[in-house]
Specification:
The chain is built from eleven helices and 13 strands. The protein is an alpha+beta fold and 365 residues long. The protein has two domains: 183 residues, Aminopeptidase; 173 residues, Aminopeptidase (3-Layer(aba) Sandwich), CATH 3.40.630.30. This is GNAT family N-acetyltransferase.
């Protein structure tokens, strides 16, 4: 008879055996090995977030699965790195059956919240309250195959971007693309561009939070097969004009923080960067670029298909679960109401833009 036990540890306490098994399970069970589900990403979060934990499921004393999470007050739990992670869930050996409520009880959680639960997470899918498209670029046919699809589906986008690329080179100097840039200074430039973009569009500035700053700089130096930081930069002359920082595994590049120099906005340097980056990714053996959940015209033009991610929460009876429901469900229902009505969605975006303009006019301390 199989005896199951659940231990809860800090990410730094994962043993070499645990790390090896985690990596093997992801490689063998996940069609797309997203780096956000790697043990290295979990450990990086553990260095910047005090509540980071891992529930290790053991059968007959041997590790059989891992459930990474963050625990807050009143037992309120959330997916590891919630707010910046684009793939969430548990990593379990095939055939392992776990009661989700028992998993939360063993983890001292009254609730576990997720917003990018990957498909195939049968343990948590019954608790999903929303599903969203996450556009991806399939590169299994190489860049030539992808460009053929792009010409067929987004010919105007491709033609306009190539024209902008030539204009940029004429006006700003010879273009140079670096797929894997190692410069901390250029990473800092990208983060400053992105921070300004958040403020300009009325959104919360992620880089105003120290833990996200520290996380990105830490991951920029991480180099493992299942999770490596990747900074890609487009230069005009010696000046960076667009950049992207993401995470890659052997087969997946998860797009994360793209931005560009506003001085060159008329040349669409972000689009030029993406085409260069897609071509380099294909040459590096990457089979898929995950563009991430969220609406954007460039994603619609570049994508070849879509994955599905889910949001929701597992709740056990308790004060933490009640607090979660009161603070999350009414706003979630309202956001869904707005998303389904284009006029309301457009009005919300205009309001965010107005807030952004007001922020830009307000002196910063």
């Amino acid at each position: 008879m199989t005896v199951q036990h659940i231990d809860v540890i800090r990410p730094a306490e994962l043993s070499p055996t645990d790390l090896e098994l985690w990596g093997e399970l992801r490689a063998s069970t996940a069609p797309e090995a997203n780096p956000f589900m790697s043990p290295e990403f979990c450990q990086a979060i553990g260095r910047v977030r005090q509540g980071a934990r891992v529930a290790v499921v053991r059968q007959d004393g041997e590790p059989a699965g891992f459930f990474p999470f963050e625990r807050g007050r009143w037992g309120r739990g959330r997916a590891i790195g919630l707010g910046v992670s684009d793939s969430q869930g548990a990593v379990l050996r095939p055939g392992v059956v776990v009661d989700p409520y028992e998993l939360l009880r063993a983890s001292s959680l009254s609730v576990w919240e997720f917003n990018h639960l990957e498909s195939g997470q049968d343990l948590f899918l019954p608790f999903a309250t929303g599903r969203f498209a996450s556009p991806v670029i399939d590169l299994t046919g190489g860049y030539a195959g992808y460009e053929t699809l792009l010409r067929a589906g987004s010919r105007t986008f491709l033609k306009a971007t190539r024209a902008q690329e030539r204009r940029l080179a004429r006006q700003a100097g010879p273009l140079r693309f670096v797929f894997d840039e190692r410069s901390p200074a250029v990473l800092g430039t990208l983060m400053a561009w992105k921070s300004a973009q958040y403020r300009r569009t009325g959104r919360r500035d992620r880089f105003a939070q120290d833990w996200i700053n520290n996380l990105v700089r830490m991951l920029a130096t991480t180099q493992t097969p299942s999770c490596s930081g990747l900074l890609s930069v487009l230069y005009a002359g010696e000046r960076p004009v667009a950049a992207h920082f993401g995470l890659r595994s052997r087969t997946v590049l998860s797009c994360w923080f793209p931005a560009y120099d506003r001085d060159f906005a008329t040349f669409s340097p972000g689009r030029v960067l993406y085409l260069r980056m897609i071509e380099a990714a294909a040459a590096a053996g990457i089979g898929m670029l995950d563009l991430g959940r969220g609406d954007a015209a460039y994603k619609d033009s570049l994508k070849t298909r879509e994955l599905t991610v889910h949001e929701g929460a597992v709740l056990r009876a308790g004060a933490g679960a009640a607090l979660h429901w009161l603070s999350h469900e009414p706003p979630r229902a309202f956001r869904g109401f707005v998303r389904e009505r284009p006029q309301l969605k457009a009005a919300a975006l205009r309001t965010l833009a107005t807030v952004g303009r007001m922020r830009d006019r307000t002196p910063r301390p």
